[in-house]
Write a structure and sequence with these properties.
Number of helices: 0
Shape: globular
Structural class: mainly beta
Distance between the termini: 37 Å
Order of helices and strands: EEEEEEEEEEE
Helix content: under 10%
Strand content: over 45%
Largest sheet: 7 strands, mixed
Number of strands: 11
């Protein structure tokens, strides 16, 4: 299993970002996938998940209403769209499948 996140960077407060997770080494469409984040000095926080065929999604309370998770099984890629970002959401964002995690992509929310 290999997972590679991209799309992080600097975002202004109130701004939006779209993250990508490219997957390889397994039958991507057979597995539910998730996004999590880790802010400096804090534990990992699960924020969203999506069923293998994309037919069901789940969101954490802290992001519900501002986040959209999606996937393109033809491209073996999962996405996370985040809107109305706040400085406290500065974190490394990860995609994961069970115990397999990507290297993460840094998102910094600052003016």
């Amino acid at each position: 299993v290999q997972l590679a996140e991209s799309g992080g960077g600097l975002v202004r407060p109130g701004g939006s970002l779209r993250l990508s997770c490219a997957a390889s080494g397994f039958n991507f469409g057979d597995y539910a996938m998730s996004w999590a984040r880790q802010a400096p000095g804090k534990a990992h926080e699960w924020i969203a998940g999506i069923k293998g065929d994309g037919s069901d999604v789940w969101y954490g309370d802290s992001v519900r209403g501002r986040v959209t998770i999606s996937r393109d099984n033809g491209k073996n890629t999962m996405y996370l769209q985040i809107t109305k970002m706040a400085p406290e959401e500065t974190a490394v964002y990860f995609c994961f499948l069970g115990g397999s995690w990507g290297q993460g992509t840094q998102v910094t929310v600052s003016s």
